[in-house]
Write a structure and sequence with these properties.
about 300 residues; alpha/beta; Nucleotidyltransferase, domain 5; six-stranded mixed sheet; five-stranded mixed sheet; 11 strands
Length: about 300
């Protein structure tokens, strides 16, 4: 059974087209998997509205995705389309999605923070992972989700949101960096009860662009390679080293680092800082990277209901 899903986040828009085994409730073969930097969340934290430039970038991306879906014999109207933190925050989000539906037949559902965390957990688990002893974290552009079998939470803590709010200089100043770090740690206090509900030796899996980009940098990959990335471990020390290097580099200098997406160069410091403090503050010695995530989870769950 061929299925398609679109995950529209604050920073990226992802399209997955895959064979899906309804009996096993699992993706059996990925036919197409693309991530496009659209930065839909541009300035939303300050204005609570979608920026015209961001709207145009995203509409262009979605028109291309709809054409790809149709070219593979599927109907855009049958695609599972979900939107996350930016759509929740933007006052003009509903108008934007009405326009998208008229132009492309792609119909979006805006997920709550709890729904995002739930679907992200199911989609992010690596093959062979024990769900009962696993936890998944998703550092997004506008929010961060934590999820395990026993529960989860969503925090308004994201790479785009915190770059725009705190890290305004290029390179960042010490005062900006420390103010950003302090607010990250203050917000992560809200996740301590969730952490205490997990086994002490729970395994943390990190999904989404920040983790994948840092893993690509760690390996020096010139192009995306899911086989090489899935399961890669990053330690507290690895993340600390990356944060320190990103901190003193300009955005232009970050763009040429091996494996780092140029379009993510301005927000990767905030994302790396969040991920590093998650490990430190919530007592995880390492994380395992997963290139999967929300687009897999919603495909499985919503397909089950069709």
């Amino acid at each position: 059974m061929l299925k398609a899903s679109i995950d529209l986040g604050t920073n990226t828009c992802l399209l997955l087209i895959a064979d899906y085994d309804a009996e096993k409730k699992a993706v059996t073969k990925v036919l197409f998997d693309q991530s496009t930097m659209v930065r839909l969340g541009q300035a939303v934290d300050q204005t609570k509205r979608l920026h015209p430039d961001a709207v145009e970038r995203t509409r262009n991306c979605l028109r291309g995705y709809a054409a790809k879906i149709a070219a593979m014999g599927l109907k855009p109207s049958h695609t599972v389309c979900v939107a996350t933190a930016t759509a929740r925050d933007a006052e003009n989000g509903a108008k934007f999605f009405d326009t998208v539906r008229r132009e492309t037949e792609l119909s979006f559902r805006t997920l709550s923070g709890d729904e995002e965390a739930k679907y992200m957990f199911l989609g992010g688990l690596l093959p062979g992972s024990d769900a009962s002893t696993s936890a998944v974290v998703d550092i997004g552009g506008g929010s961060t989700e934590f999820k395990s079998e026993s529960g989860g939470l969503s925090l308004q803590l994201g790479s785009v949101r915190f770059t725009e709010r705190f890290l305004k200089s290029d390179p960042v100043t010490d005062s900006e960096f420390w103010e950003c770090r302090a607010e990250i740690e203050r917000m992560l206090d809200q996740a301590r009860d969730w952490r205490q509900s997990l086994p002490k030796d729970a395994k943390l899996i990190a999904v989404a662009g920040t983790a994948v980009t840092l893993a690509q940098w760690q390996l020096g990959l010139k192009s995306f390679d899911a086989q090489a990335l899935d399961g890669l471990e990053l330690s507290r020390g690895d993340l600390h080293r990356m944060v320190e290097e990103l901190k003193w580099r300009t955005v232009a200098e970050r763009r040429v680092l091996p494996g780092l997406e140029p379009g993510r160069a301005d927000v990767i410091l905030a994302g790396a800082l969040i991920l590093w403090r998650v490990l430190e503050n919530l007592d995880f010695p390492v994380l395992r990277v997963s290139t999967r995530g929300l687009r897999y989870g919603v495909l499985e769950i919503v397909t089950e209901k069709l």
